[in-house]
């Protein structure tokens, strides 16, 4: 059980990844992303999750350079994730995409490189490219996002490398038990995107009542629920008080009853697209 913001989980290839990080989806390129990332690192975050599709890799890269210098950190103390976008999937185009991302980030390597969505007919070729990127040291670990069980099974039929991680939409209204169980069996870490369902779950009365019991916010309760379920989590925020508040989840533990109460809230309700039915 992680009990510090910088505690890590060992991925299936031995790479250590922080349990808790900052997501920068929908964070604007320029001052907003610069400030958000630097604030997070200043307050002890070590994991930053971006993607080519977020169009803020340059800002993230600049923030990393400035934060390293200002906080006296080394590059290897940070864990940086980015992703190949759907339009770039395929073997050669993915190899070009990682170079473009590294150039924007100003990095020699990323810690984790992910396939953003399971584009039909393309993700296997894309995975071959990720295996080459991994062999070449441009990514310390490789994985996928938004893969259902059948996508993972299909991918692993031909894969040389088992994905280190599957990043999926996951929150109390979409608890993804089947995928979590499958990944646990295969040694694939699970990471939650949109862990607060874009703010929906923090309005939940059950979660609020549990928060009152511990003197914690509804958001802190949900993020703690992630960690106690062995789910890596990357809440997004651009506000300093929220960035620090989100991370204030290592000084309490939810009881088994409260964990069960949150588990029971599942509605299989998505805030984002279904990976079996998307058109982008």
Give a verbal description of the structure.
This is Aldo/keto reductase. InterPro entries: AKR, AKR5G, Aldo/ket_reductase_CS, NAD(P)_OxRdtase_dom_sf, NADP_OxRdtase_dom. The mean pLDDT is 97. This protein has one domain (8-197, 231-236): TIM Barrel. It has helices at 31-42, 57-71, 91-105, 123-135, 149-158, 177-186, 205-214, 218-228, 240-246, 256-263, and strands at residues 8-10, 16-18, 22-23, 47-49, 79-84, 112-115, 142-145, 165-169, 189-193, 232-233. The strands form two sheets. An eight-stranded parallel beta sheet has the order 3-4-5-6-7-8-9-10. It is of the alpha/beta class. β6, α4 (123-135) and β7 (142-145) form a beta-alpha-beta unit. α7 (205-214) crosses α8 (218-228).
- Strand adjacency order, main sheet: 3-4-5-6-7-8-9-10
Strand content: 5-15%
Radius of gyration based on Cα positions: 18 Å
Low-confidence stretches: none
Question: What is the succession of H and E elements?
Answer: EEEHEHEHEHEHEHEHHEHH
What structural class do you assign from the helix and strand content? alpha/beta
| First-last Cα distance | 37 Å
Number of domains: 1
- The helicity comes to 25-40%
Considering the protein shown, what is the CATH homologous superfamily? Answer: NADP-dependent oxidoreductase domain
Number of strands: 10
Total of DSSP H or I helical runs spanning 4+ residues: 10
CATH topology: TIM Barrel
CATH class: Alpha Beta
GO molecular function, one term: oxidoreductase activity, acting on the CH-OH group of donors, NAD or NADP as acceptor
InterPro entries: AKR, AKR5G, Aldo/ket_reductase_CS, NAD(P)_OxRdtase_dom_sf, NADP_OxRdtase_dom
Protein name: Aldo/keto reductase
Site (Lowers pKa of active site Tyr): 83
């Amino acid at each position: 059980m992680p009990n510090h913001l910088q505690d890590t989980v060992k991925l299936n290839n031995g790479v250590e990844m922080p349990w808790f990080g900052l997501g920068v989806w929908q964070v604007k390129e320029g001052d907003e992303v610069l400030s958000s990332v630097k604030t997070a690192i200043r307050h002890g975050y070590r994991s930053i999750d971006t993607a080519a599709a977020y169009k803020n890799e340059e800002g993230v890269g600049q923030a990393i350079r400035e934060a390293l210098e200002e906080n006296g950190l080394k590059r290897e103390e940070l864990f940086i994730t980015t992703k190949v976008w759907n339009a770039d999937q395929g073997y050669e185009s993915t190899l070009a995409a990682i170079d473009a991302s590294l150039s924007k980030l100003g990095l020699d390597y990323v810690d984790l490189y992910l396939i953003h969505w399971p584009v039909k007919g393309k993700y296997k070729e894309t995975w071959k490219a990720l295996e080459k990127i991994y062999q070449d040291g441009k990514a310390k670990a490789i994985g996928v996002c938004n893969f259902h069980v059948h996508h993972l099974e299909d991918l692993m039929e031909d894969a040389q490398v088992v994905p280190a991680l599957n990043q999926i939409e996951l929150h109390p209204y979409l608890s993804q038990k089947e995928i979590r169980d499958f990944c646990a069996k295969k040694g694939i870490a699970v990471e939650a995107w949109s862990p607060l369902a874009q703010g929906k779950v923090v309005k939940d009365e059950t979660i609020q009542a549990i928060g009152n019991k511990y003197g914690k916010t509804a958001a802190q309760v949900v993020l703690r629920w992630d960690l106690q379920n062995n789910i890596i989590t990357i809440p997004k925020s651009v506000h300093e008080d929220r960035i620090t508040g989100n991370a204030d989840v290592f000084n309490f533990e939810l009881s088994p009853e409260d964990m069960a109460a949150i588990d029971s809230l599942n509605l299989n309700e998505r805030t984002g697209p279904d990976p079996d039915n998307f058109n982008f």
